[in-house]
Design brief:
The chain has about 110 residues and is of the alpha+beta class. It has a single domain (about 5-105), classed as HIT family, subunit A, CATH 3.30.428. It contains three helices and five strands. A hairpin with a 7-residue loop joins strand 2 (about 25-30) and strand 3 (about 35-45). The longest helix has 17 residues, at about 55-70. It is globular, with a radius of gyration of 13 Å. It binds guanosine-5'-monophosphate and zinc ion (ZN). The site of guanosine-5'-monophosphate has 11 residues, from strand 2.
């Protein structure tokens, strides 16, 4: 999708620094971080959300990206939170599937991370 911001970022067109990249996904800093570590894991192909027929290999790459990000950003031991906001009630504002990886400080017990 040429008018989708995450399609454009994931294509590398902006020269964004990626913490992780494979054939299916990239991971990069959120523009408006809500925690000391706030990274987005984003498929290169466009899916609206987690219920948009996402192939198993893409989900596997997303899990690999989370592990790489956690290790690179030093939050693998201290812990972190993964969130996929979905649709209007879920608070999704960018309609391209993405997983938030938040950590670097205690996040509390709230269900909402932002
Ligand atoms: P959502 O609300 O859809 O779950 O999360 C979208 C996230 O994308 C927000 O946390 C927002 O800060 C981030 N975001 C929106 N536009 C951009 C952008 O152009 N670059 C980056 N790196 N993050 C963005
Ligand atoms: Zn897209």
């Amino acid at each position: 999708m040429s008018d989708c911001i995450f399609c454009t970022i994931a294509s590398g067109a902006f020269g964004t620094e990626f913490y992780y990249e494979d054939e299916n996904v990239v991971a990069f800093d959120d523009l408006h971080p809500q925690a000391p570590v706030h990274v987005l894991v984003v498929p290169k192909a466009h899916y609206d959300n987690i219920i948009d027929g996402v192939p198993a290999e893409v989900l596997s790459s997303m899990a690999a990206a989370v592990k790489a990000v956690a290790e690179k950003r030093g939050i693998a031991e201290s812990g972190f939170r993964c969130i996929m906001n979905t649709g209007a009630d879920g608070g999704q504002t960018v309609m391209h599937l993405h997983m938030h990886v938040l950590g670097g400080a205690p996040l509390g017990d709230g269900l909402i991370a932002k």
